[in-house]
Specification:
alpha/beta; Rossmann fold; Luciferase, domain 3; 7-stranded mixed beta sheet; 5-stranded parallel beta sheet; globular; binds 5'-O-[(S)-butoxy(hydroxy)phosphoryl]adenosine
């Protein structure tokens, strides 16, 4: 392999950076390695306000971690109240833009008032610490208000991405036993209203635990309200008070549950807790994004994903930043919408995904070139490995060759960024997340848990616990243990394949399990398969990810039909819509392929590996000795040649 290009930070960047040069990075990293508990204790004291100090930094009984045991804090207090005594009180916290063009500049004081009022309403209606609330909203400030109001009282929130269907929403409400659903009539995307309330109504037909459904009026379109269950946000606000202090909560009090796809059909509710999560996301805001007081930070992930939790809401607000929040699509009304926003608010730090970059590349350079992007000083990438062409374009066309790109590797389970360059310290190699954060001890191992030599591919694991790590899977501690801590005894198993080069840089290659990555969204093959087999015409289904130029992977389904059902184009379309209805539009398969049989082992297990190979390379060269009937794969390969 040829040596990759290396991009050291410019002198100018280093001079003003929080962490300067490799010496700066090494000092932090070595410090943490020497005495992790002392290190994290210092970080937590510096970055977070505690009502009561902790007694023990870490109680580690693998796989159960407790951080800052005995300490009391509150996330909403840290994101709001603590900024009000100083120069940040009238600083803009959220610079919001609606897709149709409305603008709201919400200061810390404004946001505090909105959160206190909404929390007072929740409290008055009897919602309290430990109860669960679902948030199903568009990208509007009230979504952030709802999240922070929950944390103020210790209500465990679960944000469900607005692109999920009624079915997916229902499953999450039920799994969590939520007492409240906070939603809106709808939101805007590509010039159209996307309604949310009808999906909530459909879901709530089978959710007896929900007492209150609170609806924010965003679009003003016709909305049916059910008596005794549905309440308008603006009506409740008339009864709100401004006396609703943040509740001091145990450091390990559950903060939120976020559902993500695993290797089975059932999504996992990833649980994060209070003190450790807050400490870690605040620290990484500064280490990775080199955040300065005057920066305008724009992470354009949806709040329904973990990136939205950690780097749209909690990280930036806890660090006292000004963040941009944009409701709609990047291509509305034209392909330069993002660049208009960067120019208009003079965005300094932009954090986005390779899939978005690739989609924008396709539209041409004239769109960004028509705008003044000179305010940008740092770019970020997350969600999947960034391919060389996307890196080069992002660096040259958006960053004008001036801005470092921080490629950040992490997961819903990790809560915050674990592997990424500190931009004023670590020389970049395009496509690599570079080096671990302080206190993290990654390794690349083989299936037996032995470390492999530099350059060799293996499984990425973490040998030490970190403050923002997953605590458990909601309602399923066994699955937590089994999934993350049983593959390699004593270590956290990420589910990713990776290699580490001679310089200690990590190169993540992708998932080793049956999890697909479509536009940076995680989707399980089994989840799509279970959706398909629920359809009356489908006998069996096997789903694999197929390489896709823009979205990274696309969903490709092999389907056998029940007797009497006939494959035809209309059924293909129907099944694609069916999956969108069962899971959400973002899961709509790109391709449905009808087949008489699926490749199986003699014991009847579907060999997805062969199908993956088939859609990737168009032929199957791998080991087929366990395949029961070779003709199945030959037929599928021949079908492919005809396409
Ligand atoms: C999976 C986690 C973390 C927020 C977004 C996704 C892949 C994520 C990178 C990166 C290579 C990456 C991994 C990981 N991934 N970031 N910078 N380079 N791969 O969160 O849905 O929990 O997915 O996304 O495969 O395991 P998620």
């Amino acid at each position: 392999m040829s040596q990759p290009d290396v991009f050291p930070p410019s002198e100018e960047f280093v001079r003003r950076a929080r962490v300067q040069g490799m010496e700066g990075y090494r000092a932090l990293y070595d410090d943490a390695l020497r005495d992790p508990e002392e290190f994290w204790g210092d970080v937590a004291r510096r970055e977070v306000h505690w009502f009561e100090p902790w007694k023990t930094v870490l109680d580690w009984q693998p796989p159960a971690a407790q951080w800052f045991v005995g300490g009391k804090t509150n996330v909403s207090y840290n994101c709001l109240d603590r900024h009000l005594d100083g120069p940040r009180k009238n600083k803009v916290a959220i610079q919001w833009e609606g897709e149709p063009g409305e603008q709201r500049a919400i200061t810390y004081l404004d946001l505090h008032r909105l959160v206190v009022r909404f929390a007072s309403v929740l409290k008055a209606r009897g919602h309290k610490a430990g109860d669960r609330a679902i948030i199903y909203m568009p990208m509007i400030p009230e979504a952030v208000v709802a999240m922070l109001a929950c944390t103020r009282l210790g209500i465990i929130h679960s944000v469900v991405f607005g692109g999920f269907s009624a079915e997916a929403l229902k499953a999450r409400i039920q799994d969590l036993g939520a007492a409240a659903v906070i939603t809106a009539d709808g939101g805007y995307r590509r010039g159209k209203e996307i309604k949310l309330k009808p999906a909530v109504d459909e879901a709530l037909e089978e959710c007896p635990t929900v007492r209150d459904c609170i609806v924010y009026r965003r679009t003003g379109s016709e909305t049916t309200m059910k008596d005794g269950r549905d309440l308008w946000w603006h009506d409740l606000d008339e009864t709100a008070t401004e006396d609703c202090p943040a509740v001091p909560l145990d450091s390990e009090h559950p903060l939120f549950v976020l559902y993500t796809s695993g290797t089975t059909g059932k999504p996992k509710g990833i649980l994060h807790t209070t003190g450790g999560y807050l400490t870690y996301v605040t620290a990484t805001m500064k280490w990775v994004f080199d955040l300065r007081e005057e920066d305008t930070f724009w992470c354009n992930a949806d709040i329904g994903w973990v990136t939205g939790h950690s780097y749209v809401v909690y990280g930036p607000l806890s660090a006292g930043a000004t963040g941009v929040l944009y409701e709609g699509a990047p291509d509305y009304p034209a392909f330069d919408r993002w660049w208009r926003i960067v120019e208009k608010y003079r965005v300094n730090i932009l954090y986005t995904s390779p899939t978005a970059i690739r989609a924008l590349i396709r539209q041409g350079e004239q769109w960004p070139n028509g705008h003044d992007l000179s305010s940008l000083r740092l770019l970020g990438s997350v969600g999947e490995p960034i391919n060389p062409a996307a890196w080069e374009w992002y660096h040259r066309v958006i960053g004008k060759g001036r801005c470092p790109i921080v490629d950040t590797w992490w997961q819903t389970e990790t809560g915050g960024i674990l592997i990424a360059p500190m931009p004023g310290a670590v020389p970049l190699k395009p496509g690599s997340g570079t080096l671990p954060m302080p206190g993290l001890l990654p390794a690349i191992v083989d299936i037996k848990g032995n470390e492999v030599v530099p350059g060799q591919e293996g499984f990425l694991i973490m040998r030490r616990p970190w403050p923002s790590m997953i605590r458990t899977i909601w309602g399923d501690p066994e699955r937590y243990k089994e999934q993350y801590w049983s593959q390699i005894p004593g270590a956290y198993f990420t589910g990713d394949a990776a290699r580490c080069d001679e310089d200690g840089y990590y190169w993540v290659l992708g998932r080793v399990d049956d999890v697909m990555n479509v536009s940076g969204h995680r989707l399980s093959t089994m989840e799509v398969e279970s959706a398909l087999v629920k359809h009356a015409a489908v006998a069996e289904a096997a789903v694999v990810g197929k390489p896709h130029e823009i979205t990274g992977q696309a969903v490709c389904c092999f389907v056998t039909l029940k007797k009497g059902a006939h494959d035809h184009t209309a059924l293909g379309k129907e099944l694609r819509n069916w999956v969108a209805h069962e899971i959400g539009a973002f899961a709509r398969p790109e391709e449905i392929r009808f087949t008489d049989a699926l490749p199986k082992t003699r014991s009847g297990k579907i060999m997805r590996r062969l199908l993956r190979e088939l859609v990737t390379n168009k032929t199957v060269a791998g080991d087929v000795t366990t395949l029961e009937d070779m003709s199945v794969i030959n037929t599928l390969a021949a079908q492919h040649d005809e396409d």
